[in-house]
Amino acid sequence: HDASAARPSPSGGASGDNQARKRLFSKELRNMMYGFGDDPQPYAESVELLEDLVIQYITDMTLKASEIGSNKQGRMVVNDILYLLRHDPRKYARVKELLSMNEELKRARKAFDEPSKGLE
User: Where are the residues of the annotated region Disordered (predicted)?
Assistant: First the structure.
């Protein structure tokens, strides 16, 4: 039997990249699909297709955000993503909500860590 056929190639061939990439979000996508009414164990082909779409969307948005180049150092910043989503109210609101929650978590962690520093 050929065990190497089931694993991505170390040389980084196209099929190896594709197989390795498929595992990035499959667990999360399966859970999301189930949460939205799919079977607890959706077809692998459905998960793979959805993951291809997600990867393509992330790639497209990243390229577009890097083209905007609001940061002079060539780095992408959060405002670039917000700018791209300005005409999609649902996505824009969700990004703002996630950013707000992230800031709130940072403040909570900082408040939680500060008292322990004084006891050391």
Answer: 1-22
Contact in structure between 92 and 84 (CB atoms under 8 Å): no
Question: Is the distance from CB of 17 to CB of 8 less than 8 angstroms?
Answer: yes
Q: Which long-range contacts (CB under 8 A, 24 or more apart) does 61-67 make?
A: none
Instruction: Using the structure block, give the residue that is written with the tokens 């005409």.
Output: 87
Domain locations along the chain: 24-68
Q: pLDDT (tens digit, 9 = 90+) per residue, 15-48?
A: 445 554 557 899 999 999 999 999 999 999 999 9
Cβ of 66: how many Cβ atoms within 10 Å? 13
Fold of 24-68: Histone, subunit A (1.10.20)
The CA distances from residue 88 to 24, 53, 84, in Å, are 26, 18, 9
- pTM above threshold 0.70: no
